[in-house]
Amino acid sequence: MRVLGIESSCDETGVALYDTERGLLGQALFSQIDMHAAYGGVVPELASRDHVRRVLPLIRQVLSEAGCGPEQVDGVAFTAGPGLAGALLVGAGVGRSLAYGWGVPAVPVHHMEGHLLAPLLEEAPRPGEERPDFPFVALLVSGGHSLLLEARALGDYRPLGESVDDAAGEAFDKVAKMMGLGYPGGPRIAALAEKGEAGRFRFPRPMTDRPGLDMSFSGLKTFTLNTINDLGGADALSDQDRADIALAFQDAAVDTLVIKCRRAMEQTGGERLVVAGGVSANRSLREKLDAAMAKRGVRVFYPGLAYCTDNGAMIAYAGALRLAAGEHSGLPIAVRPRWPLAELNPLSA
What we know:
10 strands; 5-stranded mixed β-sheet; alpha/beta; globular
């Protein structure tokens, strides 16, 4: 089965063609980062309009590079949520229309399920690694989402904990904006933290002094802002001040995620942990999680760096699994900007 995947939930237009026997045949991605950077964050209307401009040329590019015509596509998968309503409608409208015109089934894909399954996507795992099998515990840290869940089977996800306010990715972006680092904040904070002096600042690890697996990063963001103001404001910060603050913030955010993951593994007794989403590319998070989980005999799995951020490949792959399990959409085009992962139907592929 060859499945065309379309991702348009936020500020990246991703298209990919996945073959269930041969793997990924082609993919293309256009990022809107440069356009949104001028505003310090994503502007929904601009995002939607840019998806309209990009999606069809990217589809033509992917099919051409794969040497595949429309008649050789067996299904179309598109991100139906969660995300920006206008942006989702672009991908859903194009995906459903192409499927109807080509006479093939279409399937809506949950954006976070795409991230969840991304570590299974690559044809050859990195040396010494293997693909995670169900069941496993997953930490999903992507944009406005930070959640822990137990993945028991395809579509069978039990929530364990989530952010009650700002997600980790949002906090990275907002702290970067506070210091005038630009958008997106995650890579900029991580790069600056490399130059930071450890121990100068000590930031709190929110909600780790009480039981439970819920997370909160709003207070950490406020603590960071207060630290900046204590130093005279963003304009008064030296390069070293910025680096030291970036390191202290990153350490606090990463330690919080590691502590919550450790508790989740203790609570479930699981032996496999999947970490996915944009923040999963953070090197400090990977190093600290690997060290903490190794002490418990837990294997940790990450997607390749190319599949941490939003992409069409993860949507094509998740769609292929759901189409193989017999799921497909009707003719009406519908999206769900808010869509709890626990509401997905368990399927057996």
